[in-house]
Design a protein that fits this description.
It is built from seven helices and eight strands, in the order E-E-E-E-E-H-H-H-E-E-H-E-H-H-H. By secondary structure, it is of the alpha+beta class. The chain is elongated.
Length: 259
């Protein structure tokens, strides 16, 4: 490999035409975080790497880097999730998953754990393995955990009592604390906690600790899933102290009746 050339794997999370033939693609990579790459001639149908520059394409890439700017030299497609664009709900959710991942990923993040989480979620969505609501909630909880924002599970931080044995559990989103009723009653009154049922607590404990390929390998009832969805979304937003335009777009698409 010549000087200036680098190799990485990454997924295209944003595409912007640049001139008549080129593209600027934003990649979430395993080892360099989020980078923007110039793909010269990618708009031409005959371009050898055109499929690697499609939205949600995951590829091995050879880049040329100079002064922090990247140019695509070669690409080999590993997997394509472009078909998600054919369904508005799936497209909107995929966009949110990508934006949330990009918000927390950093260069040299271990072995690309956040990228792998995103790929697993997109695969589950593309394959229709689970409902979008389930995929979204699991993704949000796991993303928080991988970002060092894992909520307390196992024993109550206040008294050490096993939370699984408690009659009730209360989730304080700001501090990421899950407390038993006695300890929760002693918390300041400036935050109203979420009461967690046994099923919702068990789901949170499982998702944050499961092996990467097994994070979706559990079942939860419809009512508990609705509660889990609310808690997971609000917890991630609260911990990151931000909202996501793509999340609002996804919520809008969920209100559009299917024809």
């Amino acid at each position: 490999m010549s000087a200036g050339q680098v190799q990485t794997t990454g997924i295209v999370i944003r595409v912007k035409p640049y001139g008549e033939r080129d593209k600027l693609v934003t990649l979430l990579t395993a080892d360099r975080g989020v980078i923007t790459v110039s793909a010269k001639g990618a708009l031409k149908l005959t371009a050898s790497f055109s499929r690697c520059t499609q939205l949600y394409a995951y590829s091995h890439l050879t880049l040329y880097e100079k002064n922090g700017f990247y140019t695509l030299l070669e690409g080999a497609l590993i997997a394509s999730f472009f078909s998600l664009s054919e369904n508005l709900d799936c497209f909107a959710l995929a966009a949110y998953l990508c934006e949330a991942s990009a918000a927390v990923v950093v260069p040299n993040d271990g072995e690309g754990e956040i990228l792998n989480l995103l790929l697993n979620a997109l695969y589950a969505l593309k394959s229709n393995l689970f409902t979008p609501e389930f995929i979204k909630a699991v993704f949000e909880l796991r993303l928080a955990a991988l970002s060092g924002l894992e909520p307390t599970v196992g024993a109550c931080p206040g008294c050490g009592r096993p939370l699984a044995e408690a009659d009730e559990r209360y989730f304080f989103l700001t501090e990421g604390l899950i407390l038993c009723p006695a300890c929760a009653s002693g918390q300041p009154a400036d935050e109203t906690p979420y009461r967690l049922s046994r099923a919702v607590y068990a789901a949170i404990a499982y998702v944050t600790a499961a092996k990467p390929k097994a994070i979706f390998s559990f079942r939860i009832g419809d009512e508990a899933l609705r509660d889990l969805s609310v808690v997971a979304e609000k917890y991630l937003q609260n911990q990151l102290e931000r909202t996501f335009p793509t999340l609002e777009f996804y919520k809008t698409t969920r209100q559009i009746p299917n024809e």
